[in-house]
Amino acid sequence: MQTAIRQQIARYLVYLIVIRMFQELYSLPQLLRSQRFDWLSLVKDNKNTLVMLAASFAVLWVTQTEKLISVEEFTCLFVAFLICQYFLKERKSRTINYGVGMACSYFEGYLKLIIPNDGTQSGGGFEHKIQQYEASQGVVFPVRMLLLVITKSLFCPPDMNHFNNRNRPDLPYMEAMSRRVRRQSVPGPQPLTDVLRDVAGVKNRQYRNSPYKIYRRGRLPVCVIVEFATPLHTLYQVLHNRDLYDELCDVDQAELMRDFCTQLQSTIERSPDTRGRCTLIDFDDTDVNANLASVILDKIAELEPNFEEILKLHENNCSFDVLEL
Questions:
Q1: Are 208 and 195 in contact (CB under 8 A)?
Q2: How confident is residue 86, by pLDDT bands cut at 50, 70 and 90?
Q3: d(Cα 110, Cα 104) in Å, to the nearest integer?
Q4: Which one of 11, 120, 307, 320 has the largest count of C-beta atoms within 10 Å of its C-beta?
Q5: How far is CA 10 from CA 14, 19, 186, 217, in A?
Q6: Using one digit for the tens of pLDDT, what is the confidence trace for 217-270?
Q7: pTM of the entire predicted model
């Protein structure tokens, strides 16, 4: 009786170890592509498993009465294992998603810190800071929102003017807004008032947003607060260093971006602190004829159909102020 039990235990150990080896086969192609792949290390890491497999076969060989393994038993166990793996994978995909995680982290770690008014002296809120900028610099923002550009390639250059279509001087183009003192332009960009927050043990951590001006031939320029989504910039760097991140070798970039954008826009709309104060703009930077300034103007027209009238009214008021002086 004891021999039969030992034999049964050994047989099921063989089944489970073989199934585990099938699991490892899924990651083998990824390991082979890795520059750090080493057969000796692979054997060493799985030494205990191999020893257990050899010991189980030895027990079966010594105590066998009919056959070493049962194909029927193994097949049933393997099918049961696949069913369990399917439901566990489904559960994992619903709870752990890289794109969704990036969006949540970006919202909680950045947008939720710079956009709402937290009641402190340095936290007057995003709209309030735009109003301060308008008053000090003599400009107007037809849309008082943070526009987040999502590039198709994930590439996020240091300056928005990188995406100006220089071969088409007839198209709108963007430049960082310069500082104005007594109606005179001073060299150097002028950001909004910095946001200071005590975050994760860091006192007065600084957050900054840069206004841009879109210049148009024969029309008034348009002021906007626009930037790239920094998590996608980080992801771009990660994906271009895949040899350092084996786990991302087979990542679906398009799916990841969809998850990120869907979750981020949904969270922005659900939160009363950010709703109507922030939105996403898709930009296909892989199209050589695409012009970011034109795409942003289209978005502004969608958000504020009367933005041209707002610009003209501001221009007239400024002219009236000059005449009064």
A1: yes
A2: low
A3: 10
A4: 11
A5: 6, 14, 81, 81
A6: 989 999 999 999 989 888 888 887 777 776 666 677 788 888 899 999 999 999
A7: 0.67
